[in-house]
């Protein structure tokens, strides 16, 4: 979900695509969803639909046959789905659909095959059948990305012909990734990398969307490929997915960019052909408690009667739709951390329009954006401005809500919504930071939207989960992750016309979050060795004085010149008396006696 808005203006004011042109994504097809009645106990098979309860479903089968339609269980075999429900809190019965305190029955959701352009017409006719509770159409899902301001710079002919084979090596662009920096500018990935597990070790992240360039030169180390679905053959989708994976898990080497959690295993799940809810569920099935699932999609919402718009006005997070919300709740009940782009609709999700249940939604549906209702459990992410001057541009005060970002009480955190440097091209063309003929070497400086904000939050969470695992502690649950994001981090700031009351949440601060998550104890001991790190690696790390104390190296960042000199002199004298107080690997106190 990328945003194209100018600072202080609505989405797409000058046109959402490059040079003001409208944008399109191939394969963004509507989905016709049917919710069956629980008592009918429908079961789909090779012979069509039958009723496990013995109900007469001849009218349903006749209708499907006459209209040349087929019902396909959204979440797979109904009996298997019912037996695989995660443990859930007790709550009132609600007819099997779901409700506050209960898990929706995933076996009741079906996708209609064969409806084509007749989807809207068919909903009422399907809902009138006795075995069907309701039917609704979901608009096509698209990335929550906005196009960057203006068109990318024109490439010189020699650049356009650039071939990776024999061409100069890709430069190191990490210096342009301000989101890696210490808080409040970034999430403090550099600090995380110095801690055990802090690069995302033993954590898996699956990105749910449309397509990716899996052969990219900077996604080689930890990319596990596609776990479900078939990628959409469209360059705009591919550039989008590639950019997302780069922010999270770009390789940590001397070229290109580095992901926030470069040691996390990343994978992809495409919704093409199976729908977004099925892709979310199938991806979650492949993950363990504590792993992460990112949803990089949004859809036209009720503000403009679900109309597809080039400017993305009124687009909302996918959890608005009952089957998507059910899939997310299933994943979070399993312990998977689901992170979801809030959408680029410029909407207050607290508005009364979201309290009105759409006529076609099930009776048990409740507004998921209202915190007083049953939560999906996902982390909902808004888009904040990067620090002014990033890449020579100013989008408003740092951490202020960007005009296109949805907002409201439901949002948990924000990430950079502009100027995100990562892998992939510019929208539907070659990279604006590095282009050329080889797509595997494209880079962009202008990834944007709640699409760029969400992987920033995912990367921070992956680092935190890795630190917890390395410390022998349980990873965060979905509820705990949302709590930590809300209680820590760099606070949202006001902007003209966009006050902090229009909530998008805090920017994650990994270091501050660790203090909430990991019990700290201060130890002390004599330094046995020292290492004055004059040239840290990576270069973005602070200068450090490293002291070997109590069997491990402890780091003193940004040592004062007089401290450095005193330690040098003590060890040069042959009988050093350097007393160190430390918390984990960080020096918190130092006394040099000789």
From TrEMBL:
Instruction: Please give the Gene Ontology molecular function terms for this protein.
Output: serine-type endopeptidase activity
- Peptidase S8/S53 domain: which residues? 236-489
Q: What GO biological process term is on the record, naming one? A: proteolysis
**Does Hydrolase appear among the keywords?**
yes
Any Pfam family matching the protein:
Peptidase_S8
Q: Which InterPro entries match?
A: Peptidase_S8/S53_dom, Peptidase_S8/S53_dom_sf, Peptidase_S8_Ser-AS, Peptidase_S8_subtilisin-like, Peptidase_S8_subtilisin-rel, Subtilisin_DY-like_dom
Alphabetically ordered keywords of this record = Hydrolase, Protease, Serine protease
Q: List the transmembrane segments.
A: none
**Looking at the record, which segments are called Disordered?**
1-26
Q: Which domain of life is it from?
A: Bacteria
Q: Which Gene3D superfamilies match?
A: Peptidase S8/S53 domain
Q: Where is the composition biased (Gly residues)?
A: 9-20
> Which family does this protein fall into?
Belongs to the peptidase S8 family.
Put simply, this protein is called Serine protease
């Amino acid at each position: 979900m990328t945003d194209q808005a100018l600072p202080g203006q609505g989405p797409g004011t000058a046109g959402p695509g490059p040079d003001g042109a409208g944008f399109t994504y191939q394969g963004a097809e509507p989905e016709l969803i049917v919710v069956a009645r629980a008592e009918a106990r429908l079961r789909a098979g090779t012979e069509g639909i039958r009723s496990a309860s013995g109900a007469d479903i001849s009218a349903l089968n006749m209708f499907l046959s006459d209209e040349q339609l087929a019902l396909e269980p959204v979440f797979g075999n109904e009996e298997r789905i019912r037996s695989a429900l995660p443990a859930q809190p007790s709550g009132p019965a609600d007819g099997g659909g779901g409700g506050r305190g209960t898990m929706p029955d995933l076996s009741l959701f079906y996708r209609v095959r064969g409806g084509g352009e007749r989807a809207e017409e068919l909903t009422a006719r399907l809902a009138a059948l006795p075995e069907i509770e309701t039917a609704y159409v979901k608009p096509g899902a698209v990335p929550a990305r906005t196009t960057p301001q203006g068109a990318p710079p024109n490439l010189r002919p020699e650049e356009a012909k650039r071939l990776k084979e024999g061409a100069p090596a890709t430069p190191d662009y990490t210096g342009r990734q301000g989101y890696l920096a210490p808080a409040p500018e970034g999430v403090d990935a550099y600090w995380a990398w110095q801690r055990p597990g802090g690069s995302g070790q033993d954590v898996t992240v699956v990105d749910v969307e449309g397509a990716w360039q899996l052969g990219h030169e900077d996604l080689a180390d930890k990319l596990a490929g596609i776990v479900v679905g078939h990628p959409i053959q469209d360059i705009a989708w591919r550039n989008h997915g590639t950019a997302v994976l780069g922010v999270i898990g770009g390789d940590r080497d001397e070229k290109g960019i580095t992901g926030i959690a470069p040691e996390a295993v990343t994978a992809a799940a495409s919704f093409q052909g199976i729908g977004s809810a099925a892709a979310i569920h199938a991806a979650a099935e492949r993950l363990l408690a504590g792993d992460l699932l990112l949803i990089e999609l949004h859809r036209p919402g009720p503000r403009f009667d679900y109309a597809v718009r080039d400017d993305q006005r009124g687009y909302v997070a996918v959890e608005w739709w009952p089957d998507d919300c059910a899939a997310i709740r299933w994943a979070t009940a399993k312990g998977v951390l689901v992170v979801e782009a809030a959408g680029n609709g410029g909407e207050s999700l607290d508005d009364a329009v979201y309290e009105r249940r759409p006529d076609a939604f099930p009776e048990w549906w409740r507004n998921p954006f209202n915190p007083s209702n049953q939560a999906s459990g996902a982390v909902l992410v808004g888009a904040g401005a990067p620090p002014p001057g990033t890449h020579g541009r100013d989008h408003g005060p740092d951490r202020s809500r960007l005009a296109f970002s949805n907002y409201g009480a439901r949002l948990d955190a924000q990430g950079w919504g502009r100027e995100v440097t990562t892998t992939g091209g510019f929208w539907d063309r070659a990279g604006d930071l590095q282009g050329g003929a080889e797509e595997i070497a494209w880079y962009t400086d202008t990834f944007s939207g709640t699409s760029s904000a969400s992987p920033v939050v995912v990367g921070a969470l992956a680092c935190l989960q890795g630190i917890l695992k390395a410390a022998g502690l349980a990873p965060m649950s979905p509820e705990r992750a949302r709590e930590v994001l809300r209680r820590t981090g760099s606070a949202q700031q006001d902007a003209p016309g966009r006050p902090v009351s229009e909530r998008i949440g805090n920017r994650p601060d990994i270091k501050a979050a660790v203090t909430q998550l990991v019990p700290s104890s201060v130890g002390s001991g004599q330094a046995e060795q020292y290492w004055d790190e004059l040239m840290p690696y990576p270069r973005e790390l602070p200068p450090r004085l490293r002291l070997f104390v109590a069997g491990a190296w402890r780091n003193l960042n940004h040592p004062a010149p007089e401290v450095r000199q005193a330690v040098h002199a003590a060890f040069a004298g042959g009988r050093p008396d350097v007393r160190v107080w430390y918390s984990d690997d960080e020096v918190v106190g130092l006394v040099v006696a000789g």
